[in-house]
What does this fold into?
Amino acid sequence: MNLARAIHFDESDTRVFHSPARTGEWCISGGFEFSNWGEGDLEGKARQAFSNGWLGLETFGRVTFVAVTRIEEAERVRLVETLATHFVEVYGAPSQDAAREVAEAEIAEMQAMCDDFDPNTILSVSRELTEAGVREEYRAIEAPDAELEAFAVHGSLDD
It folds into this structure.
């Protein structure tokens, strides 16, 4: 079973998001955060989070890229509880039990997407507002198989 972890290629996420996700934390799309947004909400760093930010499940910060990674069941269960608690504390869900069902669905959706890719595949998300609501689109950059020549040392031991 696969899920995705935050990955950084440079420090840009620390400048473009109000709260950047930590490298290595588990992530989901997190598009639910924008369900009631309109054009007036899309300014500055909030626009960047909306446009292409994955949601970290520890810091609840945003990250531009995630990498598909294997996850153990016990870790997935812990993430469901963490997200359910977030729904209660931040979004006012009526109870942990009610929130757990929604958290389970959010993580299952991300897991299903990640299970379609090999580990180390890089994913990005892009969003736009439509009349029907938020539209998300995903892109995958698969990790190329490294050829032996990339690691082989060429030369002579006689030199």
Q: What stands out?
A: Residues 73-91 form the longest helix (19 residues).
